[in-house]
Specification:
4 copies of one chain form a homotetramer.
Chain A lengths: L2 H20 L6 H8 L3 H7 L4 H26 L3 H17 L8 H10 L5 H26 L9 H22 L3 H18 L2
Chain B binds a DNA duplex through helix 1 and helix 3.
Chain lengths: 199, 199, 199, 199
Amino acid sequence: MSKGEETREMIIREAAAVFNRFGYFGTSMADIMRETGLEKGGIYNHFRSGKDELALAAFDYAFSVSSNRMGEVFKTVRHAADRLIAFGEVFKELLDDRVLPGGCPVMNTAIEADAHPGHPLVNRVREAMTAQLDMVQRIVEKGIARGEIKPETDAQTIAAMFVSSLEGGVMLSKLYNDSRYLQRVLDHLREHTEMHLRA
Amino acid sequence: MSKGEETREMIIREAAAVFNRFGYFGTSMADIMRETGLEKGGIYNHFRSGKDELALAAFDYAFSVSSNRMGEVFKTVRHAADRLIAFGEVFKELLDDRVLPGGCPVMNTAIEADAHPGHPLVNRVREAMTAQLDMVQRIVEKGIARGEIKPETDAQTIAAMFVSSLEGGVMLSKLYNDSRYLQRVLDHLREHTEMHLRA
Amino acid sequence: MSKGEETREMIIREAAAVFNRFGYFGTSMADIMRETGLEKGGIYNHFRSGKDELALAAFDYAFSVSSNRMGEVFKTVRHAADRLIAFGEVFKELLDDRVLPGGCPVMNTAIEADAHPGHPLVNRVREAMTAQLDMVQRIVEKGIARGEIKPETDAQTIAAMFVSSLEGGVMLSKLYNDSRYLQRVLDHLREHTEMHLRA
Amino acid sequence: MSKGEETREMIIREAAAVFNRFGYFGTSMADIMRETGLEKGGIYNHFRSGKDELALAAFDYAFSVSSNRMGEVFKTVRHAADRLIAFGEVFKELLDDRVLPGGCPVMNTAIEADAHPGHPLVNRVREAMTAQLDMVQRIVEKGIARGEIKPETDAQTIAAMFVSSLEGGVMLSKLYNDSRYLQRVLDHLREHTEMHLRA
DNA sequence: GATGAATGAGCCTTCATTCAT
DNA sequence: GATGAATGAAGGCTCATTCAT
């Protein structure tokens, strides 16, 4: 990786962290200068069209972090019911994460994007959220096919339920700075999975 | 009501609507001028200390709208299990509302406040969220006492679960501009209530 | 005096005090509202053309306070040399005054007016300063005529010297909040008067 | 000197001139934009924290101009009595100055700072005034030690007297736009120095 | 590749003033 | 005589962005 590419990645990493804490619109280019230690021009050299371009790159990076973590976990967890539970656990990891503080970037961005209808982030965050929903849906569908999940389970409903409650739980725990709210959601999802989803 | 009070209320109403759509920090005083039809000074006459004061008043108003709606519904719905279901239905009403578009003001504000740690809105939104959680918790507790809810139910977990999933569901439906996401959450909560909570 | 006139005088008194402390341009109409306890309209009823009109009235009042005090003192002090000394003492009284805090209104206004060349206050403060200078000059001239002051004394120079050093002394004492600076000026003027002016 | 430094110095020079004429609070950033030919951001790039920071830098510069002029004069004037007289002459130079119009920045600022008690300029102007007073005091003290000034002279009183009357004289001459007032003060100080201070 | 000087639109707020009540 | 609702210009400041070096 060339020095330029390294700098670019560093900018993305730092920007993703700040954006996730203070929002895309709450973060100024000056904040990013401070975090990266670069001057104005140094950043614009890598993101010629400015803050939006950087925001997209940072969001993609932030989402890839949680995606990769999911992928890693799923390498060792193969039963559909266990995967559903593990899916939730990864949200908890993210909440405590020091690499990307600020909770789930997908939800954070979703709320902000909603307030800026034409913004390019809107499409990106929709795609990311769809990927999250699809992941749960596919776990359930495959689980049904494999006989790991009860056949009458509605995959779409479970997907909406898992993602909604986990995102909401992260929000509550951040609001009160108290991980117990997300923990209660996880407890409930685990119990529900064991008692009503596992075949 | 004096003309000044009327104007003040009108400003709050309009501001609450804009804030809920575009966020407290995404909304400029110029936006509020446009919506209210007043000039700069006309707004500052009513909110001497500026945008923050208006933001607090608008948030209180926005929260009172959903609170009042809850109160109204609970006048006719008295069984705890029915109240839990009705609680969720009110979120759906809010999502479609034309008076206060933009979904649930408590969650919207929670996300924004999180990015502005010292801001006075933080305490306000915590109080509001606590009120929401307490409402569910008390419905469950009273329901258990009255024999309407299964006695082994954990009120705190149900509260966290209901609020998290409903807020998350609103977020999903707003993101895709598609009410089905929240509907799936509501379906799941109703089914869960009927099958596992109702005594 | 009618109630309207009484209110008018009250406004002038309060305004003069605030103006003398914070300057004509450093004082807002809101400050004057606070001090007088009146609302906007209440003040504009009495000073139809606004802040400038009030500023002129307040300056006239402030200057009359020191003028009247001079007149009072000169009723009992008749020797020219004593009057010169008494002239200085009145400046010290003004510095400590609680009725009109802020030191000599003539100098305060002179500095401010200087920064606002076209302002109506400029002429007013020139007239007031001329009255102060003339007062000293006439004391000296009459003193020479009566044989109380040495005949070779230059009245204009003494006038410039007394007024300059007293105004400057007030300024120093206010700057350090320490009356000793003005006191040193007074000591020097007294000694100079006794040793070189008194016939 | 880099281009940035040059611009910064230029801003300070222009700002000092405007401030000294129209006061720190009577001068708007728009005025400074006009004088410097820079846009808003161009000025804030050099004075990140805004008008106050610029005000302090400008005051320091303005004071250094008169300080430097004093130092220059004192290189060729060594007798204490002559230095006292020269001290006064420099005030006259400043009054006529085209580089820094508006008279003595120390007094101008002292009056304004007095109206803004908490302002950072207050301390700065006190230090500057103390430097002026100390300069006279030390001239006298050294003069006594060297036998150039009469030994019974009170250095503190002379310092207060010189500074007060010169500042007051500048004020009078500015008020009337007539240098004779300051001239009379200078005449008196010279005569006093020759007749009563010179050993 | 990186610097940092400069731009100019936009933000929140304060102010003196007017006028219907 | 007095109130206070409303105006609109002006103030200080921040921001994303450009570009010569």
